[in-house]
Amino acid sequence: MNVNTILNEAITGVKGAQFAGIIGTDGLSVAIAYHPGAAELDFDIELAELELADLASRAAAAADRIGVGYVRDLVLETDALLMLASQIIPGYYGILGVLSETANLGKARFALQAMIERVRVEL
């Protein structure tokens, strides 16, 4: 199974999911998939992916300076989106963005972890 299939299945498996992907702390996207209706939203969902990569990079650098190890998970909850990032391997994170109005943090975290485990098998 390829990574894009895994990402798309993560989106369809979570109510309100708008994007799923793999990002690097170098700011580059490895793979990203969008919900078909995401283009109709009033915010820049493609920019969300880049900003999550930047947040992951900064959090990793801060954790390194503090001496507490790798950043495993990031949760950013806003009025419009719940955005999650979870480490696949050091330097790479799986991400999931869910509309806040329908988001269930527990279900979103579970779905992201399941997606990451499947991605690890593919890598």
UniProtKB/TrEMBL annotation:
SUPFAM superfamilies in alphabetical order: Roadblock/LC7 domain
Domain of life: Bacteria
Protein name: Roadblock/LC7 family protein
